[in-house]
C-alpha cells in the first residue's frame, strides 16, 4: 500500500473517487509495464515510484479540466504505453476510451493490460493518427482527444482536432513552458476548427513537476483537406 495514499490524494484533488480496486489495477499495470519493458521499448522510466508519479499521477492530472469527467468517449492519440488514456480509464471507467498508436508492439502490450485488468469499453488500435481520422466513423466522433509527448502543438493539432465533435475538446498535456509553442500553433488551431480556451497549470503531487493542460475547443468542422499526409504535416507546418 506504499503508494496508495498519494494516488488517492491526487485523484481526490481532481474530484475523483479512488479505492483499492483502482489501486490494484494500477499496480498490475505497473508490473506489466516493467515486465514488457525488458523485451520492448515502452518507457525510459523504470522505478516504481517514478512510474506512479510521472506516468500515473501525471496522467490523472488531466481531470483538472473538469468537463472531462462528463465525456462519453475520448481518443488518446500516440498513447505509447497507455498515457494518459489508460489511467483515465482506470479512474473513470464510465468513459469509453480509444487508445491509438502507430507501433504495433505497444498496441499488443496495451491489449494485454486491458485483458489482464478486465476493463471494458476500451479499444487499443494500431494506426497512424493522420490516417485513422480520415475515416467517417472516427472523424468528428469524440467528445475529447487527449495527447501527451507526441509532437509540438502545431503538428499535434492537425493530428488531434479532426477527431473531436463540435463543442468537444482537444486537451494537450504539455511541459512547463508552453507560451511560445501556443503562439506558434494559434494559426493551425484556427484553420483546423479549434479555439484556444484556456491553459491550466497542474502540479504532480510528490514531485516538483509543473505541467500545463492546453485546452482547445472545437468550434467548427475541420476542413476536409486536413489532416494532410505525415510528410506535409511535419515539413509544411500550418504556421
Ligand atoms: N503518450 C505516451 C506518453 O506520454 O508516455 C507516449 C509518448 S511517445 C514519446 C510517442 C508515441 O506516439 C509513440 O508511441 C509513437 O509510436 C506514437 N506516434 C507518433 N506519431 C504517431 C502518429 N502519427 N500516429 C499514431 N501514433 C503516433
UniProtKB/TrEMBL annotation:
Residue positions binding S-adenosyl-L-methionine: 78, 83, 129-130, 148
Locations listed in the record: Cytoplasm
InterPro entries documented for this protein: rRNA_ssu_MeTfrase_G, SAM-dependent_MTases_sf
SUPFAM superfamilies to which the protein is assigned, alphabetical: S-adenosyl-L-methionine-dependent methyltransferases
UniProt-recorded Gene Ontology molecular function terms: rRNA (guanine-N7-)-methyltransferase activity
Keyword rRNA processing set for record: yes
The entry's keywords: Cytoplasm, Methyltransferase, rRNA processing, S-adenosyl-L-methionine, Transferase
A GO CC term attached to the entry: cytosol
Enzyme Commission number(s) from the entry: 2.1.1.-
Domain of life of the organism encoding this protein: Bacteria
Functional note: Specifically methylates the N7 position of a guanine in 16S rRNA.
Family: Belongs to the methyltransferase superfamily. RNA methyltransferase RsmG family.
Name of the protein this chain belongs to: Ribosomal RNA small subunit methyltransferase G
Record organism: Clostridium cellulovorans (strain ATCC 35296 / DSM 3052 / OCM 3 / 743B)
Lineage per the UniProt record: Bacteria, Bacillati, Bacillota, Clostridia, Eubacteriales
